[in-house]
Amino acid sequence: MQHISAALFARQACNRVGAAVAAPPNNYSRIRLVQLGSQLSSKRWYTSSIPHYQSSYIVEDHDSLRPGQRITISPGGNEPKRKKKRKNDEVVTKKPFIDRIHMRARGGKGGNGCISYHSLSSYKRRPCGGHGGTGGNVYLVTDPKISSLKMEKHHYQGQDGGKGGKNGKQGKNGKDVFIKVPCGVVVRRVLDYEELYGELDGMDEDNNSSGSMDEESSSPHEWMQMNSDDYQEEDDDSDVDEDESSDDEDTDDLYEEDAITDGDNDDEEEEEQGEEEEEEEDFETYYNRLSESQKQKMIKRRMRDTPSDYEEVVNQEVKAEDGMYHWTSPEVDTTVDDDLMASSAYADYQSMRKSVFLADLDQPHTAFLVAEGGKAGVGNQIYANRPHFAAATINAAKKAKPDEGEITYLELELKLIADVGLVGFPNAGKSSLLSAMSRAKPKIASYPFTTLEPLRGTVHYNDGHQIIMADVPGLIDGASEGRGRGMEFLRHIERTKALIYMVDAGGVDGRDPVQDLRILGKELREYGSSGIFGDDDEHDDITSSIGDDTDDMIRRRREIMNRPSLILANKMDLFSEDGRKEELLFQLGEVAEEVGINCNPGDILGVSAGVTGEGLRGLSRRLREVVSKVD
Ligand SMILES: Nc1nc2c(ncn2[C@@H]2O[C@H](COP(=O)(O)OP(=O)(O)OP(=O)(O)O)[C@@H](O)[C@H]2O)c(=O)[nH]1
Ligand SMILES: [Mg+2]
């Protein structure tokens, strides 16, 4: 029976296939088809039970049909979604890791209140308009399943509230929007342009009112002229020059007027000119004289010209004749430009980017309101008891207008939460350790900066205990000043309980492990001691009014050196003599003490993370002890 139905089905199928099957096969039982792209079953005998959505087959075995020939049966229905195959490669392709984004959130607008009056004779002219609905809010919600700040879009808006209706009918409230973010996100509100410049303008006014008018009135034109010569290097950009020169003219006119009004104070003017000569070289004064738009242009231009040291560092990878990548420590000048750094232009730039701390979302399933929906308009039903007052009608019209939703510009920054963070120079073997101790599959290669995004893995113990380990991209000398994107990477170890310093004991890249540890310790110390603006009093006037990170966050960063640490000398398989190994571990201990790394002598271990696995068992035991002490 089954044989017959199979034959029938096959004939029908072949008819549908038409030209693809030249001569209908006469022995159907020998047709063997392989379905293309199916995961459910790769091979099947041709029977009547072929699902309708399976449409494409390949002939494997038949007399008249050529094996390998593809036949197509008319498709019917939708093919189910196919799962992507997971690659068994060493490198698992994953979504890009994004740890800092800017976004805009806007609460929904409230709904209009309704103004209407009963028309029934007994109620005539009695107000009965319903209230509008409130606008939807926008929330951030932490979801432990998400690990990156990658978002579909960067603008989110709550739904607008519905209008109120007749007979006291209230409008619908707008739907809230919930944006999923990973745990460990720090939320800051970016001050928008007007808010920031409102404050800066206010400060300027204060300065002016404290008697600096005369200073401005004294021959500013010549002064500008002189200074623009002095700072010729800033005027390379011809586009901006033109704009600036037009602005200059504006300011000149302004100054000339002032000069006329103050024209009779010749003596004072001379004195001030003398003062100006002293200030000629002063970039800051020059900057302060510029108009707001000129300042912005200058800042943007100067910042754009700042060398992107990271690019240069990465570009140092050179593929040599032996086919391997070699890396030479680049000589990159990362100083932004001393006079710029010291100037208030730089401070303005910093404050332009500055933002107000809102929240540290480090707990899972926490909702945080970032933009509130607008209030609803009020319906005129509230005046139902006094319908005849004219005032009521006027007020009702005002009150019926809803509020706009709140608009916030946000900066979200993800700081990984892990029990232990791996710190080391590029190529030390950090990723090798992570892959040896956890199921994470980081990319491992013999060239530096293989890892460019922080990655976490979980170390599982037999009794079910788990420790989360974060592999942070390699740090280089000067990382605490941002060299080689150091600042970006270092912030991911702020939320760890313990640290593992890893050095390449084999000295594969010609590095000295002892010196490496010294540099790492120094960099972490410097990173820890830098606040957002550190203890720099210069910027206090700006930061105090704008706000800053919480004390808790600064404290966490400052305590980075107090964190219990382990020091690993990796690639011990390259050591042959035991004596040298002991000596190296001893030297590392001395350096740890010198730079102030918080570790016991027993926590300096020799391991071979990537080759023999030597020392890893002892490491995992010790790691657990160290981490559990911190709780
Ligand atoms: N001989 C030896 N080689 C190792 C060992 N561990 C790692 N390596 C090698 O060292 C090189 C760098 O290893 P990675 O784990 O990618 O180093 P990394 O610290 O993650 O480097 P970046 O991601 O560039 O910062 C690779 O070629 C590894 O095979 C080891 O224990 N012994
Ligand atoms: Mg790596």
How would you sum up this structure in a few lines?
This protein is of the alpha/beta class and 631 residues long. The chain has helices at 2-17, 193-209, 213-217, 220-230, 238-261, 266-279, 283-289, 292-305, 309-314, 338-342, 344-353, 390-399, 430-437, 486-490, 513-529, 540-546, 551-558, 578-595, 616-630, and strands spanning 32-35, 43-45, 56-61, 70-72, 100-106, 138-142, 155-157, 177-181, 185-190, 317-319, 325-327, 355-361, 367-371, 407-414, 420-424, 455-460, 466-471, 498-504, 565-570, 604-606. It folds into 4 domains: 2-72, no CATH class; 100-191 and 357-412, Spo0b-associated Gtp-binding Protein, Chain: A, CATH 2.70.210.12; 214-305, no CATH class; 415-630, Rossmann fold.
Helices and strands in order:
Blueprint: H1 2-17, E1 32-35, E2 43-45, E3 56-61, E4 70-72, E5 100-106, E6 138-142, E7 155-157, E8 177-181, E9 185-190, H2 193-209, H3 213-217, H4 220-230, H5 238-261, H6 266-279, H7 283-289, H8 292-305, H9 309-314, E10 317-319, E11 325-327, H10 338-342, H11 344-353, E12 355-361, E13 367-371, H12 390-399, E14 407-414, E15 420-424, H13 430-437, E16 455-460, E17 466-471, H14 486-490, E18 498-504, H15 513-529, H16 540-546, H17 551-558, E19 565-570, H18 578-595, E20 604-606, H19 616-630
Parallel strand pairs: 5-7, 6-8, 15-17, 15-18, 18-19, 19-20
Antiparallel strand pairs: 1-2, 1-3, 3-4, 5-14, 6-13, 9-12, 9-14, 10-11, 16-17
